[in-house]
Amino acid sequence: MIRRSDFPKDFIFGTATAAYQIEGAANEDGRGPSIWDVFSHTPGKTLNGDNGDVACDHYHRYKEDIKLMKEIGLDAYRFSISWPRVMPDGKNINQKGVDFYNRLVDELLENDIVPFITLYHWDLPYALYEKGGWLNPDIALYFRAYATFMFNELGDRVKHWITLNEPWCSSFLGYFTGEHAPGHKDLQEALIAAHNLLRAHGHAVQAFREEVKDGKVGLTNVVMKIEPGDSKPESFLVASLVDKFVNAWYHDPVVFGKYPEEAVALYLEKGLQILDSDMNIIATPIDFFGVNYYTRTLVIFDPNNPLGFSYVQGDLPKTEMGWEIYPQGLFDMLVYLKERYRLPLYITENGMAGPDKLENGRVQDTYRIEYLEKHFEKALEAINAGVDLKGYFIWSLMDNFEWAYGYSKRFGIIYVDYNTQKRILKDSALWLKEFLKS
Ligand code: NCW
């Protein structure tokens, strides 16, 4: 059985959340609307019309939530800042919003829990969306100003920062498939958004170097193992293409200052110009990559699909998201990232949505324990294979608003009863508590 003591001494274990998914208090203390408030309040966009108005009410219950983290014995906590809470119009400061994050950070530090902050986990101020959102090149400078303000405000106490969470989702789910806010369906827009997200990232890293001399900054991407879904040679080719589009696209420019050739070709085809000066900003050196790993994705060559490929279902056991459980992919991708980019890594998210049932005050999520244990093993294997992996954040601390799926998917190691806002440690949390002592 894997033990905590098998990991390096300074390896950290934590949990992760995101502001819109847990905070609630959507209309309190001067918070402005984000694209997700508007999207989730638009009929048909989220399951059952669910929204983050109340969510886990973490805005009022953060002390209780930190107490639970302490009880489990977690070393660190990754959370995101709601940009529209601190800058309701995207630009001007809302002191009450800022005060909340000061209280949150102080409470974490008092409990010896190391804060990791994500600046952008998908909740763009709606006021900036009205100015063009991620399609407006100026967005990178708005983001830089917001980041600079937060570095100044919290950088004395918070030393680990992540600029963006999963820019692939913000650009492709937000602007191409339309599953996420703002719900556009336009490939050219997705390409522009992706580029502006990376520019925003680069600007924030530059600001970080000026403001926080003794901290570390990185970018978190969703990292998917892309595999061919059949044995046709064409499917191997499309798998490698999709891999470039999901993985290399958001890593290569940041380290090498270059998009993969296939992405460059797509920008050209769509008549979009990429400036060298942009690439220089995007490639401002970072300290680590954050890895959000959940699953593999199978693709096959499909001439009938305008994209040239289709997704297919694999036959491994799946989580409630329909995502295959594939721990080996975590090992493979960690080794791949190490070899290609030579940067320290954190697993900034890993976990599963399960068919959790609260029965007699208990949630017996043995599947989640098994999932975590297997992924812990692969993380350890990667460390032993020479990957500079520094920490592991479980998604998520508690059940929360799962975007387009609303409250129907439960990823937490803590169960949330949304009627009472009562929190109940699932068996996985109890298991983790023992693991962290081992
Ligand atoms: S949807 C998504 N998530 C979930 C969300 O709760 C969290 O905020 C995100 O950081 C859990 O972790 C991330 N990510 C999109 C992953 C897409 C994977 C698609 C695979 C099938 C094609």
Automatic annotation (TrEMBL):
PANTHER family, per database record: GLYCOSYL HYDROLASE, LP05116P
Organism expressing this protein natively: Fervidobacterium changbaicum
UniProt similarity note: Belongs to the glycosyl hydrolase 1 family.
Organism domain of life: Bacteria
Keyword Transmembrane helix: no
Lineage, broadest ranks: Bacteria, Thermotogati, Thermotogota, Thermotogae, Thermotogales
Pfam families with a match to the protein in the record: Glyco_hydro_1
Keyword Hydrolase: yes
EC number: 3.2.1.21
Catalytic activity entry: Hydrolysis of terminal, non-reducing beta-D-glucosyl residues with release of beta-D-glucose
UniProt keyword terms in alphabetical order: Carbohydrate metabolism, Cellulose degradation, Glycosidase, Hydrolase, Polysaccharide degradation
Protein name: Beta-glucosidase
Active-site residues from the entry: 349
